[in-house]
Here is the input.
Amino acid sequence: MIQVKQLTKIYRMGEMEVHALRGVDLEILDGELVAIMGPSGSGKSTLMNILGCLDQPTSGEYHLDGIEVSTLSDDQLAEIRNRKIGFVFQSFNLLARRSALEQVELPLLYCHGENRRKRAMEALEAVGLADRMHHRPTELSGGQQQRVAIARSLVNNPTMILADEPTGNLDTKASEEIISIFLRLNQELGITVVFVTHEPDIAAYTRRRITIRDGQVSSDVRQSDAEPQGLPLPTGEGRGEGPGRSRRPQ
Here is the structure.
């Protein structure tokens, strides 16, 4: 799914150069669930932005699903984002005056998706919000708002979801619910999930943990012979007949 070779990123501020990434080599397989960890300023968010085609490296190669994306134009990068990548952020990024259903429909407006309402409803059902579709963000808890954001990331049938501190604004119970959704999306639907976190107890749900320090991969730990720690998969309550019943939402 992801192959990165000698990736660097240098930010220039006047005469000063900040080396955010210093020759990162990395491979992530199709269907993996991976946590990227590291202290503030380590380069993990820069790496996530490049993996999500939100930024381009200064040098090096980045292949996504067999496509060399490190030299694509802005329009080509936007096309890759729309077709292959779903994003989930710490701050939810929801519009205050839009219902959950309208929030999830928005990505389909940009790519002229067919059956927008049906696909958005299926995505919300898949994250357990069948009874909250017409609620606005102020009428939802933090955990429910993040579920809306996850549904929005699903609606374009991505092959990969990138989540940047997806539980950073949530309490323990809501965090566990959100991570259990990511587990199900990964294990039942086969979606590759990569998330940035600074919380070891959240990273413990994965079988692979990559640590970034000073712009380089300092460790890459796999636990292929053991189940990841954490909660069992959710039972599916409230999911309906949406994306949880097939490999991708239709």
Notes: Strands lie at 2-13, 16-28, 33-37, 59-64, 67-68, 85-89, 160-164, 192-196, 208-213, 216-222. The helical segments are 44-51, 74-84, 100-110, 116-126, 142-154, 172-189, 200-203.
